[in-house]
Amino acid sequence: MSELMLALEKEAVNRQHDVANIIASGASSVEKFYSGTNVFVTGGSGFLGKQLLEKLFRCCNVNKVYLLLRAKKGKTAQQRVKEILQDPVFDSLHNRKSKFADNVLAVSGDVSEVKLGLSASDWDLITGQVNIIFHTAATVNFNESMKVVALTNVRGTREILRLAKCCKELRSIVHVSTAYSHATHSRVGRAVKEQFYDSPVPPNAFIDMAETIDESKLENMMQQVKADWPNAYSFSKALGEEIVRSEAENLPISIVRPAIVISSYREPLPGWIDPMNSLGPSGLILGLMTGIIHGTDSSDETDGSSKACEQPLTHNRVYPC
């Protein structure tokens, strides 16, 4: 087994050398696509968002990245950007491109609000300057209320699409969903394919209810509708995909479906994990390796899959990771 693992490791390293050589030569089609562009990112304070931000500046030579951030814990959006860029994930980038932080700009807003909570001037700034949008923001609490997931994960996606339609120089949008958006109880044992599936409820009707109905009443109304989904998060992501299908027909958009997100493999540094993700699978693996955790309950029918961070994608299709 050890020889097999070493062989797999060697193969992985060799693949990375090939990628590094292409990037160094300037021949990467991905690098050329992003070079000189202005990018708008939601969810930039999270694990995927930080990895994405680091990758864009390290490998793609983007011009500017605008991060949608809300004021939080007494800190403004601008203060939060400075805090985010102090994360160890950016250490190498600070050494290699010391001025990159000057091109990371905070835009005050909230993905759960209408028009993303943007001021009129910031709306005009984004729609006039941005070429590429990454929508990674979401509430990932499995037990979140129906009202919160409706306004954040579903309406937030709709508001991103409305912003995109106003962008004058738009090239691409990437909407981050989940591999479990349609991994329902009734679909156990069957593959979730790279396609759209029927929505359990019209997304705009769900949004309208969340905007007008008492939270407890909404929970009761949705119990039967969401019963086939294991949690509120995956249910809301199914509706988010339906919003994309129904309202983004003429937009250059891709849906990416990551599976369980764990620590980085090699880039930008081996084993990096955001503190917010450390209590998940990575925390379990670390606990088992250190002997703090000796076992965990599971089922013979359980099939786990995981994947490290994705590099930027630009094609118009659905990607399960």
UniProtKB/TrEMBL annotation:
Q: Which InterPro entries match?
A: FAR, FAR_NAD-bd, NAD(P)-bd_dom_sf
- Molecular function GO terms recorded: alcohol-forming long-chain fatty acyl-CoA reductase activity; alcohol-forming very long-chain fatty acyl-CoA reductase activity
Q: Which keywords label this protein?
A: Lipid biosynthesis, Lipid metabolism, NADP, Oxidoreductase
Task: Extract one GO BP annotation from the record.
Answer: long-chain fatty-acyl-CoA metabolic process
Record-linked CDD domains: FAR-N_SDR_e
Is Magnesium given among the entry's keywords? no
The Thioester reductase (TE) domain covers 41-298
Record Pfam families: NAD_binding_4
What Gene Ontology cellular component terms go with this record? Answer: peroxisome
Report the domain of life of the source organism.
Answer: Eukaryota
Enzyme Commission number(s) from the entry: 1.2.1.84
Top EC category: oxidoreductase
SUPFAM superfamilies under this entry? NAD(P)-binding Rossmann-fold domains (SSF51735)
Q: Which reaction does it catalyse?
A: a long-chain fatty acyl-CoA + 2 NADPH + 2 H(+) = a long-chain primary fatty alcohol + 2 NADP(+) + CoA
Function text: Catalyzes the reduction of fatty acyl-CoA to fatty alcohols.
Q: Which family does it belong to?
A: Belongs to the fatty acyl-CoA reductase family.
Q: What is this protein called?
A: Fatty acyl-CoA reductase
- Organism of provenance: Papilio xuthus
**What gene name is given for the protein in this entry?**
LOC106123849
